[in-house]
Amino acid sequence: MKIENLKRIETGFYNTPIHKLENLSKRYGINMYIKRDDMTGFASGGNKLRKLDYLLQDALDKNCTVLLTYGGAQTNHGRLTAAVAARYNLKCGIIMDGPAPKKATGNLILDKMLGADLFFMDDSGFKNEPKEIQTSKYKELVEKTTQEVVKMYEEKGEKVYLIPIGGSNPVGSAGYVMAVKEIKEQLEAMNLHIDYVFTGFGSVGTYGGLYLGSKYFNTDFKPIGVCVSHKTEADMLEKVDLIKETNEFLELGVDVFSNDMWIEDKYVGIAYNVPDPVTRKYVYMMAREEAIILDACYTGKVFRGMIEMIENGEISKDKNVLFLHTGGLPGIFSQSHEDAMQEELWGEPKNEFKL
Ligand SMILES: Cc1ncc(COP(=O)(O)O)c(C=O)c1O
After folding, report:
1. Above 90 in pLDDT, residue 349?
2. Number of the ligand 1 atom closest to the C-alpha atom of 71
3. Is the pTM of this model over 0.85?
4. Which residues, 6 or more positions from 47, have their beta carbon under 8 angstroms from its beta carbon?
5. Ligand 1 center to residue 296 CA distance, Å?
6. Atom number in ligand 1 closest to CA 295
7. From the CB of 202, is ligand 1 less than 6 Å away?
């Protein structure tokens, strides 16, 4: 269906602001801006609401009563799916990579506060198998768990709407195609030219939407996707296929070539969601220069990528850059990230006063 005819429910506050990062611009001698999709509004905000605008509409059109989705235990997408379900009087189920942690921290606390049902899959039994076997066994476990969870809801008279990990299918990706229109109109109103927009590259609805949207709406800027996890060649092919499928589904009619996508995989750090001191250095820098809080799983990596590419000259200083803040704040308060920061932030001498 033509994207202009695809209905959506605005689950967030739009337009999100664009503003200059004044201190960082001075520090690096380049015009650096930020788009605040961390300010989409509900349950700590983030990029997933733009995808959920379209997914929720589709779920309601199909008379579904449960939004069922997937993710790691700290999924931001799961948290925002739970938020949308709460506001629109639906149920939310999140199937999570498990087993269940002993203590709820970060997003998990918010998921429970928002009333989501959490289902943990114990994949520890095949963690030491070769990668290919792991992948196929994991897929099998996801399918089996989904069938059981759907059956459980259906037995209670519910109708389940399945949302893939990250909300990244052609319906959800429409959110970031249309975000390009929003950005383009904002930049025109600000009389501002942007050369590059930096975003995370995870389940790819965000980057894919921006890539397609920038072609469809004929923008001056090019999106750059910074990987948040190590991706194999097969993963990349799958992601490019999703972008092609989205192009067809939304009848955008643009050319999709993997070799004109700008994707950087050098800034993942140790691995997906593994606390990493280099990424944290950039999280602290953004906080101390601009009072904007990034997270160490997604946005910290993208920011690191952007700064290092400016420093090493891949992005020249006569260019104007826009950093898309995609949210993720609760991840800072997840167990492993909290633990990793204790020594750095709390281990310093403390100033204590007594009367
Ligand atoms: C905070 C944050 N930023 C970026 C991303 C990556 O977006 P996408 O999955 O659309 O590639 C995610 C995905 O979960 C996220 O939670």
Report:
1. no
2. 14
3. yes
4. 37, 40, 176, 206, 324, 326, 327
5. 12
6. 1
7. yes
